[in-house]
Write a structure and sequence with these properties.
single chain; mainly alpha; Hypothetical protein yfbM fold; three-stranded antiparallel beta sheet; 5 helices; 3 strands
Length: 117
């Protein structure tokens, strides 16, 4: 997702990079890929707006398994996928879940904690 949002492996400005490269670190404990990151309710609203504005066709055009393999984008499956359309459908399922979750948090004026492990 981060790659599709930012075109980068680890970098990205807010709100595009909210999954990996943005947010306020919560402590210094590595929970998988660094510390958890927090976002205020205001920032959650901005993330929700960003996610709601995404264009699926543009994201699909960014979905480049060869480039993702070359950049070592997790998971390291991009050189062995057999059906790119099935992988894209799986990514869209995850994207829909993120949009729903963050959107609900924004509607409830909630903060957000993000960590990847």
């Amino acid at each position: 997702m981060h790659f599709l949002f930012t075109g980068s492996d680890w970098k990205g400005d807010f709100p595009h990079g909210f999954l990996l490269s943005c947010g306020k670190p919560v402590g210094d404990v590595d929970v998988g890929y660094g510390p958890a990151k927090s976002f205020t309710s205001s920032e959650v609203g901005q993330i929700a707006e960003f996610l709601a504005s995404l264009n699926r066709e543009e994201l699909r055009n960014r979905f480049d398994p060869a480039k993702m393999h070359d950049m070592d984008i997790y998971p390291s499956i991009w050189d062995s996928i057999e059906n790119i359309d099935d992988e894209w459908e799986y990514i869209c399922w995850g994207l829909d879940e993120i949009i729903r979750f963050v959107g609900e948090a924004a509607e409830r004026n909630m903060a957000l904690l993000v960590y990847i492990n």
